[in-house]
């Protein structure tokens, strides 16, 4: 059985370092419908893999289905992220096909190119809705409330309008009032997973001496790696 | 006379804060010749403007003409950057046409779409070669030496090969041996400026209460701004 690619251990080790605490976000590049690039900060959620396929890890991020980045990814479902963990000076650039996993209550666009890892997960009957709800429930209360705001980037009359928005939102098993439940439903409807199937990874260890840079490429189910000039 | 756009003061103030010290780089998104996005860390150099045109600032970054990002930008001369200054939690996303300013000794590709600010600088006879040499001279000696390495991303036999590369390189007026001079010439030939003419700027002040997000757009020579949902 093929094994876990070395970049995955590198990324997981870097994430676990105390000096990288709180750096659970990366910059994600997309291409819009007119062919222009965009880059935005996205929150990391987890890495999973199909059962018995440790060589096919996928990266799960979180987003809002109402954002322009989702529109970009539906039109051009291939992305690259740059994750610079400043404490340890590890930089990971990861690219591959992307899929958006929205609420089942939201119209789901065609999901783009097939991807080995995501197709394998589907084949194994992976429960994406359970994963989506669990990811939402695991957020801190102030973050969950963000999915109740008007769509990001839409015009408001003044900055102070934001004072009227919901500040915190409980998790699914702690909702008390009818209002809480409605807010939770609204937020969960807007919440989506953004799943990347990595096929190229470029890892720079800038704190090493000499600096190290390694490129990993997946061909079919096999990972190869090479040392390159940093 | 039109005045300096408010985002520029915001960016310059954020850069000057002690809590943002050492954060002089951003993530730059480009589109490659097959239409796929890439995102890489790029070093900031300076902001300049055409004389008597404070409303047309351009951002100067530094790069190596031999890198794939330069190939991307020559094919698709429109970029977006995301600059998250983590100390003050200010995020600037800036997009617009880009131009590469290489050594006059390097074949210069067609420079893409015309841009208001860069055309104005040319019209005023701005000395780009002087600016390029000054930017290179202002780098610390260990950084200048990086432009003598083999091309970034090219394959090497082992990480240790890097131990043989040049460690430091003096500035133009402190070159002593013939070898120093040759190294300086080689590095300066590879060194290029990457100049972005901003036409959209999206500024998030995440530490403000409530959080603020402002979009700035340039139409012709005029900047407009609007408050939007963070």
Automatic annotation (TrEMBL), chains A, B:
<dbReference type="InterPro" id="IPR012349">
    <property type="entry name" value="Split_barrel_FMN-bd"/>
</dbReference>
<dbReference type="Pfam" id="PF12766">
    <property type="entry name" value="Pyridox_oxase_2"/>
</dbReference>
<dbReference type="InterPro" id="IPR024624">
    <property type="entry name" value="Pyridox_Oxase_Alr4036_FMN-bd"/>
</dbReference>
<protein>
    <recommendedName>
        <fullName>Pyridoxamine 5'-phosphate oxidase Alr4036 family FMN-binding domain-containing protein</fullName>
    </recommendedName>
</protein>
<dbReference type="GO" id="GO:0010181">
    <property type="term" value="F:FMN binding"/>
</dbReference>
<feature type="domain" description="Pyridoxamine 5'-phosphate oxidase Alr4036 family FMN-binding">
    <location>
        <begin position="5"/>
        <end position="101"/>
    </location>
</feature>
């Amino acid at each position: 059985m093929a094994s876990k690619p070395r970049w995955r251990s590198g990324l997981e080790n870097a994430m676990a370092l105390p000096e990288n605490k709180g750096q659970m976000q990366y910059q994600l590049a997309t291409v819009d419908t007119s062919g222009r690039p965009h880059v935005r900060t996205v929150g990391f959620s987890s890495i999973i893999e199909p059962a018995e396929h440790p060589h096919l890890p996928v990266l799960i991020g979180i987003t809002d289905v109402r954002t322009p980045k989702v529109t970009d990814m539906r039109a051009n479902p291939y992305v690259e992220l740059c994750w610079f963990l400043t404490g340890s000076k590890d930089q990971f650039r990861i690219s591959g096909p992307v899929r958006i996993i929205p609420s089942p209550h939201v119209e789901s666009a065609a999901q783009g190119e097939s991807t080995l890892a995501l197709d394998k997960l589907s084949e194994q009957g992976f429960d994406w809705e359970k994963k989506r709800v669990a990811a939402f429930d695991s957020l801190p209360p102030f973050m969950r409330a963000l999915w109740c705001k008007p769509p990001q980037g839409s015009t408001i009359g003044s900055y102070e309008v934001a004072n009227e928005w919901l500040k915190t939102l409980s998790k699914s098993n702690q909702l008390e009032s009818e209002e809480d439940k409605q807010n939770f439903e609204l937020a969960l409807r807007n919440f989506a997973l953004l799943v990347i199937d990595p096929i190229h990874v470029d890892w720079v260890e800038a704190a090493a001496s000499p600096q190290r840079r390694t490129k990993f490429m997946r061909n079919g189910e096999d990972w190869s790696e090479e040392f390159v000039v940093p």
